[in-house]
Every structure is written in C-alpha cells, then in structure tokens.
Amino acid sequence: MNNTTSIEEMSVWTTPIFSAQLPDHEFLKDALLDIVYQQKAAQSTAIESLIAPSAKHALHESTLDFLEIQDATIMEVKRTLEELILEVASSLNQAYWPEHTQAEAHIIESWYHVTQMGGYHDTHSHPNCSWCGIYYLEPGEAAVKGKGGVNRFYDPRVNAEHYSDPGTAYLSNQGVWDFLPTEGQVVVFPSYLKHSALPYFGEKDRVVIAFNSAIDLY
User: Which Pfam families does the protein's record reference (predicted)?
Assistant: First the structure.
C-alpha cells in the first residue's frame, strides 16, 4: 500500500524577462554613439523628454523619438529590436492569438541615456505599452565591482516579504534582482515591472538606448 501523497507544483504569475545579444553590435556601435553624442550636444536641457526630471540625476535623456531619426544605422537597429520584441511576444502569446493572424511589433517610444559619474534613475515603470527594453550600447564600467550602474528590477508580488521564516527562503528575502549588463546586450521585460538604474561611479559614460513597444495583430 502506497501512502505517498502526490503533489503537483504549479508556478503561477511568473514574470518573464529576456536577454539577447544584438546582432552586428560591433559594426553599429560607433555610428550609434556618434549620433547619440551629436544629439546630446544639441540638447537645451539635460532631460529633454521633460518626464520626471527629479527622478534622474547626472544623466542626459533625449526626447522619446530617438529611433525615428532618419538614418540608416538607426533604422537597422530599430528593425532588429522590433524583430526581437516580436519573437519574445510570440513565444508567450501565440497560443492565445486567433488562428491565421499575423503579428507586428512597433517601437512606439525610444530614447537614450548618457549617464555620468554619480548618475542614476529612480524606481519607475512604463505605462501605455506592453514590452520595454534596454540596449546597452556602452555600459561603461558597470560590470566592474563597486562601479554600480546596474539595472535593478523589483519583485511585482507586493506582499511577498510581509513575513519571513525558513519556509519563505526561496523568495531570497531580497525582493530585487540586479541585472549586470554587458556591451551589446538587450534586456526585454514587461511594462508593469518596476525597475531603476542604480548610481553609477564609472569614469566612462554609460550609454543605453531604451524603448517601449506595442504588438498589433492583422
């Protein structure tokens, strides 16, 4: 007689985050950096988007249409990122889409951050889109211990740490996950996920291109 209880684990409300290396980054990087610094030099204010300037320190932010610039390199990067977003969205959602439909990913907002010594971006999320991403064009010294500049993601389960004992050790007792970037890497995450850029202490600029996207079916 077998008295063993049959237990099935069911993981629910997981938060998918994806990372990938941007194809041809090494061939695109210099041209992209030239465009970023040309735009930065023309800025009339550090936070040109005018969005939440008090949440940002020692960084330059463009308006939210950076990937709309009519330049061959910019257009190639936008196309590649939209293909990546579509692959992510399809992998999770295709089973829920009507049969015989085609999907398209559209980057609807995009901007750069040039972060300097001591720069950071407070905790926030991105409304009015489904998927967000960060392309680490030049992470600077973010990969060097003690230099900071990592992106921190926060546990969306708001009450996950209301009680702690050995039975909750699997939650890690942190509520955060720090993403250490490498050059050319892209991280894609759902728009509801709160995140921040921790203070950066490198001598070299930390340069990223961030974007928000939406998915359409036809």
Answer: 2OG-FeII_Oxy_5 (PF13759)
Q: Over range 66-88, report the average pLDDT.
A: 98
> pLDDT tens, 33-52?
999 999 999 999 999 999 99
User: What is the spatial distance between Cα 215 and Cα 192, in angstroms, rounded to a whole number?
Assistant: 15
Distance (Å) of CA 141 to CA 26, 147, 200, 201? 18, 6, 8, 8
Return d(Cα 217, Cα 142) in angstroms, integer: 38
Per DSSP, the residues of 53-64 read GGGEEEEEE--T
pTM score, whole prediction: 0.93
Domain interval for residue 49: 18-155+173-217
Residue 123 has pLDDT above 80, yes or no: yes
